[in-house]
Specification:
Blueprint (H helix, E strand, L loop, with lengths): L11 H27 L9 H11 L25 H19 L17 H24 L3 H34 L1 H38 L5 E2 L2 E2 L4 H13 L4 H18 L1 H4 L12 E6 L5 E6 L6 H8 L2 H19 L12 E6 L9 H17 L4 E7 L3 H10 L5 H4 L2 E3 L5 H8 L25 E5 L3 E9 L3 E9 L4 E9 L7 E9 L7 E7 L3 E9 L5 E11 L4
Parallel strand pairs: 4-5, 5-6, 6-7
Antiparallel strand pairs: 1-2, 3-4, 8-15, 9-14, 10-13, 10-15, 11-12, 11-14
Helix pairs in contact: 3-7, 3-8, 7-8, 11-12
GO molecular function: lipid binding
Pfam families: CRAL_TRIO, CRAL_TRIO_N, GOLD_PATL1_C
Subcellular location: Cytoplasm; Membrane
Length: about 550
Amino acid sequence: MAEEAPKTTPTQEEKVHVEEEVVVTTADKTEKHKEEEASPEKKKPVEEDTHETATEKSKPSSDENIPESGSFKEESTRVSDLADIEKKALQELKQLIQEALNNHEFSAPSNNPPKEDNNTENKGKKEQAEEEEEEKKEQVAADVAPPAEEAKEATKEEGEAEEAKVKETEVVDDKEACSTADEDGAKTVEAIEETVVSVTVSSEQEAEETKVESKEEKSSPEEVSIWGVKLLADERSDVILLKFLRARDFKLKEAFIMLKNTIRWRKEFGIEELMEESFGDDLEKTAYMHGLDKEGHPVCYNIYGEFQNKELYKKTFSDEEKRQRFLKWRIQFLEKSIRKLDFTPGGISTIVQVNDLKNSPGPGKWELRQATKQALHLLQDNYPEFVAKQVFINVPWWYLAVNRMISPFLTQRTKSKFLFAGPSKSAETLLRYIAAEQLPVKYGGLSKDGDFGISDAVTEITVRPAAKHTVEFPVTENCVLSWELRVIGWDVSYGAEFVPSSEGSYTVIIQKARKVASSEEPVISNNYKIGEPGKVVLTIDNQSSKKKKLLYRLKVKPSSSD
């Protein structure tokens, strides 16, 4: 009977992977089910008008209905600050990694062994039958050989006998010659034997040395690096490992499996080769890094409204190949950002994500949703704990429904990093976490190309309703005074003047007071050349019923002599 092929049982890693796939699939099905429930107009066209009316009523009238969160507080990356149970988990994880490095588990191929052939016995019988048939054919050919062949064989035997007699005679004649050469021949044989022995010994030594070298290679642990940090090489490795532990709530085995899967995925995805690829500049406006938040985290801005451009949308998401290209570009962008982080204990090793949903394509854009979902899946599985905060600004009303749908599938830790702000509160929310000199002008800050840079600090003042606020800057020598100023939302009056210190001098109007509308230039920049001691006075008159946020900064330059 043919032997059965051995049954293979899935490894622990494969089980975990399957479970993750099941969860994702279930989540997708649940999401689709909820979407179908949320859009009954597709099933009941008769109720379309009623549904639209209800939808309009459900729209929030203001940003007050948009929930805020952001309760997450980033943990320390110093081992000394960890709890005892966390220290133990980190130490045990390092032991597991060391064993895996010793056994070359991170680079071990995952090829499945070939299946055995169940028909081996049948094949053997078939070959045996074929051999027997060939023997029978040879026997038949020998039996039917013609008599002429037998005569030839007899003649051949007689000739061989005569040749044997001649050879015997030659051997007798040569005995005397051979006896004279016995001594020299013996010496030659001894020399040959010595040579053979020495060659054999040297070859055995070489074989042993080769075996020793191969054993040393196998015994030396492999080296594995991730995000430019070599595992277990220094304390930076601890910071990396803490990310995996925290992503799995310090569950040792799950964190170890996640790390192994991440390293294997990076090899399969070709991360190092991906870093050298060029994707052009089409997507540069959709995501970029700019400045730091108040805690020193790099800030990444994701601009979804750019995909309203039909040409860009089609070029990016129209088919699977283009979506894969977008995914590779996004991974490359993230990798470049991560490699600039500081993985030393206490360093900044996370990023703040600002997601601008202004003019974002709605939930009907299936291609964008599919690409985003795929990207999020890869980021969650292979980039643990790299986000310090997720800030969503200019949030439209429909996004709240989408967020409610996906919220049950997010961990509390992930949800605590989310922060939402509607259009009227976006600038105020961002300024709470990002200094004005670091925040781009389009989002309510003063960061832009010009005379001022991020090193020039910005002063923030709250102007009360129906109140006037003045900014005075005294000057004692000849100079050129430059300033930048903006009021979030404007709808206030602004004026500037120079008041000399000496009596009898006249006040100089630099900017006549005028009302600045919210639709005007967001930042006012001005400068004034001063030739005598005095002060520059900037006036903000807020006659509205709402408090206003005033941002300004000044810079003095020496005056060039005329």
